[in-house]
User: What shape does this take?
Amino acid sequence: MNFLAHIALSGSDHEVAIGNFIADSILPKERALLSAQMQKGIALHHAIDTFTDQHSAFKNTVQLLRPTLKKYAPVAADVFYDHFLALHFQEYFNSTLKDYSATFYYNLAQHKNTLPGKGRELAAYIIQYDWLNMYPSIDGIHTILCQMSKRTRFESHLDKASLTLKEHYEEIGNDFKLLFPQLMQLSENLLKN
Assistant: This one.
C-alpha cells in the first residue's frame, strides 16, 4: 500500500495517521522523538506492509507487473492500489477523498515541525503537490510514478508503469478489492490494542 491506504487505515487518530504516513522515512533512532500515537502508526504501517506482501492478491499483481518493472513491481503495485482506493474512497470510508485529504493535510501541517528531517520533508512535499488527490486519475498516477522514478538509484521503468496499469487494469482492480477489506479488518483489530 502507498500513502493513501496507509493514512486511511489509521482510524480516526490523526497522530496515528501521521506516524503511518512517515514510517518509511523515519530512522529507528528517531522514533523515540515521536508521540506514542505516532509510534503506534509506525507499527501499524509495518503490519500493513507485512500482511500485504504475503497476500496472494498482491503477489498476483506483482507478477503481472514484474516483466516490465522488475524489482520495482511491488512499488508500482502499491501506487496502483492507492489509485483504486481513491476511485472508491467513499465506499470504504465515510468521506470524500477531497475532504479527507484536506483534513489530513491540515493535521500534518500542525505537526510538521515536530517531525524528524525526512519526515518533515515528506510532509511538505505531499501537501505542496497534493499527492493524495492525484491518485484517482491515471495521469496523476503517471506523474507520481515519474517523480518516484527520478529518485530511484537504478533503472526502474516506473515512468512507463501507467501503461502496464492500463494493460492489466481490471485484474489489478480485482486484486485490490480482494485485499483491501482484509486490510481494513487487520487495521481495526490492531488499533483496538
Notes: The mean pLDDT is 94. Residues 169-192 form the longest helix (24 residues). Residues 3-192 form one domain. Residues 30 and 116 are 7 Å apart (CA to CA).
